[in-house]
Amino acid sequence: MKKDASARKDSFPSAPIEKKKPQKRPMKSVRPDVKNQRIVLSQKGNKYYVQPEKGKVLLDAALKQSQDVDYKCRKGTCGKCAVTVESGKDWLMPPSEREQSRLKEQVNKGVRLACQAVTR
Ligand code: FES
């Protein structure tokens, strides 16, 4: 038995079809709450602007963001990656023992080792 088209149409409730708007997703690599935040660094007369990337060392975040911070060993021994944090120090974890022993008094003046300083 075949039903005609009008009979089928009447058998379903006529509820309006809701279209869902696509929701904006935050960028994967940068947390939404830090999107407009940045760490300002200086090294040998150059300034660098880095967005914090939770758990990454400052050097890796800087290089990923095309900030050409100078470095050599990446182990915290040579000191070539030393940078002065001009603003945004709250986005960095406290200096590690390795940083403190390598930089000594400079740590108190805002100098950090970019290869060792971890962003929050
Ligand atoms: S690159 Fe050598 S101490 Fe950071």
UniProtKB/TrEMBL annotation:
Residue intervals of the 2Fe-2S ferredoxin-type domain: 37-120
Gene3D superfamilies listed in its UniProt record: 3.10.20.30
Composition-biased stretches (Basic and acidic residues): 1-11
Disordered, as annotated region: 1-36
Pfam family, one: Fer2
Classification via SUPFAM superfamilies: 2Fe-2S ferredoxin-like
InterPro entries: 2Fe-2S_ferredoxin-like_sf (IPR036010), 2Fe-2S_ferredoxin-type (IPR001041), Beta-grasp_dom_sf (IPR012675)
Protein name (Swiss-Prot/TrEMBL): 2Fe-2S iron-sulfur cluster-binding protein
